[in-house]
Design goal:
Pfam families: MA3 (PF02847)
Family: Belongs to the eukaryotic initiation factor 4G family.
Distance between the termini: 39 Å
CATH class: Mainly Alpha
Number of domains: 1
CATH architecture: Alpha Horseshoe
Structural class: mainly alpha
Protein name: MI domain-containing protein
Largest sheet: none
GO molecular function, one term: mRNA binding
Organism: Escallonia herrerae
Amino acid sequence: MENYFHASSAKDEKEVALCIKDLNSPTFYPSMISIWVTDSFERKDMERDLLAKLLINLAKSHDGMLNQDQLIKGFESVLATLEDAVNDAPKAAEFLGRIFAKVILENVITITEIGRLIYEGGEEGRFVEIGLAAEVLGSILEIIKSEKGDPVLNEILRGSSLCLENFRPRDSRKSCRFVPSSYRI
């Protein structure tokens, strides 16, 4: 099960699903998600994309093996340790944004819910203060824009309750480098 990075074929993905089913421990699934995502920060983009695909497929198929609540709890755990993870993997915020973008594009979790997780991330909303919230959100927006274009990004943002300005560090007047130029925060 730890070898999810090689779940590149449907057969491998089914094998991971069978292992999870055999584990039969839904209360452990959020921890499993957190471990996988955190571990992916030290991997290659292709492996992170495979992980995102695996999480999406486990949530959308296999009798809904992973539910939205389990994913959210797993992502909350990742966000709880993101500040430390950035020390070891400086692009961890960007990498997490990439995974979040894929989950959003596949309608597994809404951008509003992901935005809430990011905004509340860190101790007492510290992510906003130190700029991690803007980095993660900016990465999400960049990936959506690059993969689906401005019209889809605009539609997703219009359908959300996000106020992008809330993600800007309070003492910063400049835009975040990860946010598309048309979406300054």
